[in-house]
Design brief:
single chain, about 110 residues, mainly alpha, 7 helices, about 80% helix, elongated
Length: about 110
């Protein structure tokens, strides 16, 4: 890989990370189902098309957010994932699923 293509790949990876982080923050603040392409693009300070380019569709972004929320053990997002039956939430470690379920009781 030449220097120019390495820089382009690094920039692409950074944009992907920034968009995912914005999606996670919005999901924590507004709820996982409230994630929109426009909202994430604004929060990440990127063009709307960058969200689609990085994740394909809004469902692709929501899926990535849920997978990352499970990996980071973000209980509020995982709780929503359990309610909607998201595969990543269903496959989460049992202790995380218990904690997420208990967080919705109140």
């Amino acid at each position: 890989m030449n220097m120019l293509s390495q820089r382009a790949e690094t920039a692409r990876e950074e944009r992907h990370r920034v968009i995912l982080e914005a999606g996670l923050k919005l999901a924590e603040r507004d709820g996982w189902g409230a994630i929109t392409r426009d909202g994430v693009a604004r929060a990440a300070e990127v063009a709307d098309g960058s969200v689609n380019h990085a994740f394909g569709t809004i469902e692709g972004l929501r899926n990535a957010v849920m997978i990352e929320a499970v990996a980071r053990r973000i209980v509020s997002i995982v709780a929503t994932g359990l309610v909607v039956g998201h595969p990543a939430a269903r496959d989460a470690p049992d202790d995380l699923k218990r904690e997420a379920a208990l967080s919705t009781v109140g």
